[in-house]
Amino acid sequence: MVLLIGATGFLGPPVLKKLLENNYDVDCLVRADSERSKLLDTARSAGKKIKFNTGTLQSGDSIISAIKEAKSAVYMIDLKYTHLLETFLSTVKRTGLKRVVFISSTTILIPLESMIKKKKIDSESLIKNSGLDYTILRPSMIYGSKNDINFSKMIRFIKRKGFFITFGSGNNLIQPIHIEDVASSIADVLDSKKTYQKTYNIAGKNPLKYNEMLDIVRNKLKKKFKVIKIPIKLGILLISIYSKISKNPSLVPGQIERMVINKSYPYDKARADFNFSPASFEDGIEKLIKELEVQD
Ligand SMILES: NC(=O)c1ccc[n+]([C@@H]2O[C@H](COP(=O)([O-])OP(=O)(O)OC[C@H]3O[C@@H](n4cnc5c(N)ncnc54)[C@H](OP(=O)(O)O)[C@@H]3O)[C@@H](O)[C@H]2O)c1
């Protein structure tokens, strides 16, 4: 049995779907008040049953029986929560579980220092020193489901408003990965001994300039829209005013600096070890636009 930890989030349902398609028995470790409906719908659509174990990573005792039953686990809780990882690793030591796939992030590779990056780096080193048969996968920005906070939100905004706002020149590189490629990577490495004790960057097929990405979205949406480009310094000023007056700001100034950094991630190691062959942004976004047309 594979234990999914953090399955009620964005990535969980596609990972569950992929593992069920690959005939794994899956249990999900969830908190008592976690929303389970998407996982139940996924299992129902696959014609399979899943089991829920209730517990919280705040307490090792509450999760030990779930871990004891697992042959392997996929850990999808954000590694910025180093204290939750510490509880997990110390609890695992009390069980026979050895094989765990951890989902980290390419945030670690961005040349900008932040507390989040530091915590994720600390977490990765705890994993590497844990004695587990670990694999760490570091996806870039994930898109490709109606729940994604990046491209789904962007497409809905453009459809509604007929324009889009960006910061900087738009010449910075991005390399988002489709959510199904993340789910497939997890299924591909899970039983692959070749991937034990290794860390892999996984990203979309090719890096694209932000402006190229907008052109692809324009072509695939078959809709003309204006792009309002705000210079970075002005953007930081405006967002710092907005984040002070808004009760629940959706952007903070530090995000503007991160947005305009080049984000391109070679994935040769993943290609060599588990045939990682991700979708192009053209194909991924076309799929997402079609899904949103059906669902919205
Ligand atoms: N989304 C992206 O674009 C992206 C990109 C790169 C890497 N990643 C990485 O991929 C992984 C999954 O991301 P995601 O977007 O699916 O995350 P998410 O939507 O934020 O889901 C987080 C999950 O963690 C669970 N969780 C949080 N605190 C917990 C606790 N104390 N005890 C037990 N469970 C707890 C949540 O459970 P509840 O439902 O109970 O809250 C939820 O299932 C993360 O490691 C993330 O860093 C994500």
Poorly predicted regions are none
CATH architectural grouping of the largest domain: 3-Layer(aba) Sandwich
Strand content: 15-25%
Q: What is the level 1 CATH name of the largest domain?
A: Alpha Beta
Mean pLDDT: 95
* Major sheet strand order: 3-2-1-4-5-6-11
Ligand types: NADP nicotinamide-adenine-dinucleotide phosphate
CATH superfamily of the largest domain: NAD(P)-binding Rossmann-like Domain
Helix coverage percent of residues?
Answer: 40-55%
Query: Measured on Cα atoms, how large is the radius of gyration?
Result: 20 Å
Overall strand count: 13
Number of helices: 12
Globally, the shape reads globular
Total discrete domains: 2
CATH topology-level name of the largest domain: Rossmann fold
**Helix/strand/pairing category:** alpha/beta
Characterize the main sheet.
Answer: 7 strands, parallel
Short description:
The chain is of the alpha/beta class. The protein is built from twelve helices and 13 strands. The protein folds into two domains: 2-139, 3-Layer(aba) Sandwich (Rossmann fold), CATH 3.40.50; 142-176 and 205-263 and 279-296, UDP-galactose 4-epimerase, domain 1 (Alpha-Beta Complex).
Secondary-structure map with pairings?
Elements: E1 2-5, H1 12-21, E2 26-30, H2 37-46, E3 51-54, H3 60-69, E4 72-75, H4 82-92, E5 99-103, H5 115-128, E6 133-139, E7 142-143, H6 151-161, E8 163-167, E9 173-174, E10 177-178, H7 179-190, E11 198-202, E12 208-209, H8 210-221, E13 226-230, H9 232-245, H10 253-259, H11 268-274, H12 281-295
Parallel strand pairs: 1-2, 1-4, 2-3, 4-5, 5-6, 6-11, 7-10, 8-13
Antiparallel strand pairs: 9-12
Helix pairs in contact: 1-2, 1-7, 3-4, 4-5, 6-12, 8-12, 9-10
